[in-house]
């Protein structure tokens, strides 16, 4: 059993798209399948622009560059390292803020406390597909004349106050990596309702070319290939089926694990749409086995549980010491990183698998007390 085993659509449908690629002999450079995928994602998210990219990290880099971020940008430490790297690679210092221990998302008070004259922006992260406190972060950004964008790698198909993620801040960055709810083998996109920003990012992903020989902007190579778009078009057709399977697994885990002392499942807000892609546990001091020991036991049983996002970006080698200089202690980040365990889900995990995992956790809870 694996965390993040990919969702793969019907092979026959994918082969039809491959035939189209061969017939057109158009492999990359904003091909017809990429354009069709962008249009379908725009419709799915009810957003004006989708700018497809080769992966989510390049999408982050292009978005932050298009927004003209400089000097310092505030980000959560409890996130995938690419959120910080996308800034650091451009000579921008990621300033790490703490999270709300209940939601695992950015704590607005921590964000506001970190704003200085060098701050040029804020990147919120919708962790586990659960929306960040968008309204509060936007108020802070407006108050301090900062630009706000979101790393929405986990949140395709999710909502905030009934509106699709993708419609907030200056723009939102999506990841279509193989392990995500919606994948294109490897890929990503920036979605926005800002016409100027979308046009700028389309130039940036193709070296700044505006026509065959006319370069009008400094850019890079961030283009998505046709074969990746083909997988995306296939997977869009089965998203409802994937979502239903994820939701059923989430509900089964809730039913099986709810009564186990020392283990708590991070619950989704029933008022919002979710993709249910992550089964997130917090293992606290009341469970007889420490979190890391528990992971080792699960791995022996071929249950590929993982700890996320340990130990926090600010504790990783490229960034260690930056928060110490500011005398900042990210208490909730440190504590949460020691508790979180993510269990397998997705199409490859059956109800029987979930019952087996739950039985093992129940047995450990009972026999080691």
Produce a short descriptive summary.
Helices cover 38% and strands 14% of the residues. By secondary structure, it is of the alpha/beta class.
Number of strand elements: 12
CATH level-1 class of the largest domain: Alpha Beta
Helix content: 25-40%
CATH architecture of the largest domain: 3-Layer(aba) Sandwich
Show the helix and strand layout.
Blueprint lengths: L10 H14 L7 H14 L3 E5 L2 H11 L5 E5 L5 H7 L4 E5 L10 H7 L4 E7 L8 H10 L3 E5 L7 E2 L2 E2 L7 E4 L12 E5 L2 H10 L21 H12 L1 H19 L5 E3 L13 E5 L7 H10 L21 H4 L5 H7 L2 E4 L7 H17 L2
Parallel strand pairs: 2-3, 2-4, 4-5, 5-8
Antiparallel strand pairs: 1-9, 6-7, 8-9, 10-11, 11-12
Question: Which properties best describe this structure?
Answer:
369 residues, alpha/beta, 13 helices, Aspartate Aminotransferase, domain 2, three-stranded antiparallel β-sheet, seven-stranded mixed β-sheet, Aspartate Aminotransferase, domain 1
Descriptive report:
The chain starts with 10 loop residues before the first helix and ends with a helix. The protein has 2 domains: 11-237, Type I PLP-dependent aspartate aminotransferase-like (Major domain) (Aspartate Aminotransferase, domain 2), CATH 3.40.640; 239-367, Aspartate Aminotransferase, domain 1. Helix 2 (32-45) runs parallel beside helix 8 (226-237) and helix 3 packs across helix 4 (82-88). The mean pLDDT is 94. It has 369 residues and is of the alpha/beta class. The strands form 3 sheets. A 7-stranded mixed beta sheet has the order 1-9-8-5-4-2-3, sandwiched between helices. It has a 3-stranded antiparallel beta sheet with strand order 10-11-12, with helices on one face. Helices cover 38% and strands 14% of the residues. It is globular.
